[in-house]
Amino acid sequence: MRKKRWIWILISIFTPVILFIGFLQWNGVNSKAEALSKEKATDLVEQRYKGKVTKINQEAEQYTVEMTRNNIRYEIKLRSTGEVLSFSKIDSKEKQNQLQVKTEAEIKKLLLTEFKGEIISFKKHVEKNREVYDVVLKSKEQKSIVKVDALTGEIVFRKTIEFNKPTVKVSEAEASRIALDQVKGKVDDIDLEESGGISYYLVDIDTQDDREATIQIHAITGEVLSVTWDD
User: Fold this and answer.
1) Per-residue pLDDT tens over the stretch 179-229
2) Which residue ranges traverse the bilayer (predicted)?
């Protein structure tokens, strides 16, 4: 009976001591976690996400980390304990390259690959707090009116006007043959024109005696409308 009583007395004495020691150990672990350094936070992020930390800031009990992985930048927010609060993509190097400043020559080259014709007007002005180029390009078939961001080369407005093509039944090859039947020589140039609702070809022919004739041919009937000679 006395033996059991002593056992209970010993348990009641040592139990608080054991609990107190356990509390100290647990509190020590938590203190270490809360004291996570920038170096350890950097290692944690790089090991967990397999990227490269480029920037880290600490504010109170929170870290804001910028990390690059596969040419993409991410922002990670985590507590000083290592708990991740957020993970988001910022941008990519590819996007950053697109925002590099473009020269006038680069912008003109871009436009000439994008639109038909040649540049006949290229003017810079400020519009809605940014510099833009007003550009007009023209070819035989169309005219393009374009606005381009002067900094990035981004096309912010475009309008293309198609010219009405004259109605024809006679091909250029047929018009050349008709002209050569009229004047012997070599075809130097041929243009399709329209005037007063009539479509016609103007065929320039160089003769062997160094003269030049222009033959006007109706584009529907093939009729020779006129022959003129350059003096």
Assistant:
1) 999 999 999 999 988 887 788 999 999 999 989 999 999 999 999 999 999
2) 7-26
Q: Cα(206)–Cα(228) distance, rounded to whole angstroms?
A: 12
| CA 68 to each of CA 36, 62, 77, 94: distance values in angstroms, whole numbers, following the listed order | 22, 20, 14, 13
Q: Which pTM value belongs to this model?
A: 0.35
Q: What is the pLDDT of residues 18-46, one digit of tens each?
A: 544 454 444 444 444 455 788 888 888 88
* 142-149 vs 224-230, strand pairing mode: unpaired
The backbone region for 128, taken as left when phi is positive above 0, alpha when psi lies in -120 to 50, beta otherwise, is left
Q: What is the separation, in whole angstroms, between the first and last Cα of the chain? A: 145
SS3 223: coil
Compute the Cα dihedral for 87, 59, 70, 97 and give only its sign. Answer: positive
Closest CA to 115 of 159, 151, 165: 159
pLDDT at residue 187 in the model: 94
d(CA 74, CA 89): 4
**Which stretches of the chain are assigned E, i.e. beta strand?**
52-59, 62-69, 72-79, 84-92, 118-127, 130-138, 142-149, 155-162, 186-195, 198-206, 212-218, 224-230
**How many residues are there in the chain?**
231
Residues whose CB falls within 8 Å of the CB of residue 110, separated by 6 or more in sequence, listed in order: 102, 153
Residue 83: what pLDDT?
A: 82
